[in-house]
Design a protein that fits this description.
There is one protein chain. With 220 residues, this protein is an alpha+beta fold. It is built from four helices and ten strands. Helix 1 runs parallel beside helix 3. The radius of gyration is 24 Å and the shape is globular.
Length: 220
């Protein structure tokens, strides 16, 4: 019986997505995403916000120009630091929000960050907000799909339709995010491991020399 109910829920959620009629919306000249036809658009100090209510949740798509004083990012690890800062900032805005399942993702040729923010008002009202972040040297794109805990099994089709619809212009390439496109996030970790390994070897040599010296003294 539970399997039948679960199957019905999936079919129902998929049907509602197509029934609503998601349509492509240009966030700017470079990024397009599909949203319900009844979406609202708002422009606040250069920040473009596209929002809509779905049958099971809500969608918010934001494109915000980066400050002209921002220095170009050089390596993948620099991009990762920017993403970490954004995730932390979003958590702080909610007060008691907890970022879960934070992970790297790829949208077209660009690197992105995905995570789920979970909030609880203390009275059992748990809310989920799925995020995808995209950063370029010109702008930051924040795509969000929110829904209550009670619908988390029903919204999968809507979320997949939304995030899977993100389209990038061929003009956007990895060097629009950072200049050294051959670098990886693990570069810094590799150097750190080398330093740690070198330190262990030096420590071992010192201990061994002390041992030999004491042994020589005891033999004399």
């Amino acid at each position: 019986m539970k399997k039948l109910l679960f199957l019905f829920a999936i079919l129902f959620s998929a049907t509602t997505v197509f029934a609503q009629g998601f349509k492509p919306v240009k966030m700017d000249s470079l990024v397009t995403v599909s949203m319900p036809a009844n979406y609202n658009e708002k422009d606040t100090l250069g920040q473009h916000i596209y929002s809509a209510t779905t049958d099971l949740g809500y969608i918010i798509s934001i494109v915000e120009p980066n400050a002209k004083t921002n220095q170009p990012l050089k390596k993948a690890k620099d991009l990762n630091k920017v993403f970490d800062k954004y995730v932390t900032g979003i958590q702080k805005q909610t007060g008691n929000g907890s970022a879960q399942n934070v992970r790297d993702t790829t949208i077209g040729t660009l690197k992105g960050k995905a995570f789920t923010l979970i909030t609880d008002d203390g009275s059992g009202n748990v809310q989920y907000r799925d995020f995808v972040l995209i950063y370029t040297k010109e702008a930051t794109y924040t795509l969000q799909f929110g829904y209550p805990d009670t619908r988390k099994e029903l919204v999968k089709a809507e979320g997949k339709a939304y995030f899977g619809s993100i389209k990038l212009s061929p003009q956007l390439q990895r060097n629009d995010q950072y200049t050294d496109i051959n670098s990886t996030v693990s570069d810094g970790n590799t150097y750190r491991m080398i330093e740690i390994g070198g330190g262990i070897i030096v420590l071992f040599v010192i201990v061994w020399l002390v041992f030999l010296r004491r042994r020589r003294v005891s033999l004399e």
